[in-house]
Design brief:
179 residues, mainly alpha, Lysozyme, 2 domains
Length: 179
């Protein structure tokens, strides 16, 4: 038994190394790909970034709800989703709409696309997705962060700072796994 255990450990390590990408693909899912790819294309986003946002927001749980009331895959607030739907002339009844994966992804990708258009880079758009546009605009005006996203380490909200870094890290991993 003492001789078998080291061999077994080596075998497990070899299996992990050989199948590393396949193992990572279990953690870095591409669920709901029909919606993610369609709406990413429609709104001019990289679908791999949208997967990274969904992973961070809900880990692909369509029924997720945050302590602040954000709902669904992309964790949208009811008032934000209603505003996006109104601007896009999309049907939207209530927050329960956000538990529908297709509608959530459509609204979430459109909202993120609008933020990216407004702030002109992913780093600042991600900060606004998490902390709100008002906070981000104030940070830029106060000189806390630069509008080009080159100093995201200065984002003052710890949650938002961590959020942006996590999504950018996961986005890099998605690109390595799926491109």
């Amino acid at each position: 038994m003492k001789k078998i255990l080291p061999l077994l450990c080596i075998l497990v390590i070899v299996i992990i190394v050989v199948n590393r990408n396949e193992i990572l693909k279990v953690l870095y899912k591409t669920s709901y790909s029909e919606y993610v790819e369609e709406y990413s294309r429609e709104y001019g986003l990289d679908h791999l970034l949208v997967y990274a946002i969904i992973k961070a927001e809900s880990n692909f749980n369509a029924g997720a709800i945050s302590s602040k009331g954000a709902c669904g895959l992309m964790q949208l607030m009811d008032n934000t989703a209603a505003e996006v739907a109104k601007n896009e002339m999309m049907e939207y009844q209530s927050a329960t709409t956000l538990y529908n994966p297709e509608k959530n992804i459509k609204l979430g990708t459109k909202y993120y696309s609008d933020l990216k258009q407004q702030f002109r880079n992913d780093e600042i758009a991600l900060a606004a997705y998490n902390a709100g546009t008002g906070n981000v605009q104030r940070w830029i005006l106060d000189g806390i962060i630069k509008s080009d996203g080159s100093d995201i380490e200065n984002i003052p909200y710890k949650e938002t700072n961590t959020y942006v870094r996590k999504i950018l890290r996961d986005y890099r991993i998605y690109k390595k796994l799926y491109k």
